[in-house]
Predict the 3D structure of the following.
Amino acid sequence: MTVLSEDILELAILFFISFFSATILPGGSEAYFSFLSISTNHYAITLIIIATIANTLGGMTNYWIGLLAKKPLSQQKYFRQFILSQQNKHNTIEKANTLIHKKGYYALLLGWVPVIGDILCFVAGLYQLKWLQTLVFIGAGKCFRYCALFYLIQ
């Protein structure tokens, strides 16, 4: 395998790990991002951009799922029970609901936070927040996280 194809493969893996870890599937892109930051010759900006775009698209996937649900949060009892049982956290959806209700788009800056971040994106869809502002705030929070992570490991 050539060096170029290895580089492309590493970046593709980063993209997919970052995307799927932003959905309700378990995963952590930070470990692989850190590994590539330390052990390869990739530019920092390349790693940050790829991880941010993929992770933001994963967050927007949760947003679109919430948007398609189009039911008030109080009617989402089966989904709420599923999320709470999967995350082993009590009142996670209620916390996300309260945060979105009080802070609006600014709450989406926390879209990267484990457990509640995925649900915040979903609840933003339930509230039918505008997609462009949602995209910007989710992306900004996720970009900040990867920039901070890169800074910490250097």
Notes: The helical segments are 3-21, 29-39, 44-69, 77-87, 92-103, 116-126, 131-153. The chain has a mean pLDDT of 85. Residues 3-153 form one domain. The chain has one domain: 3-153.
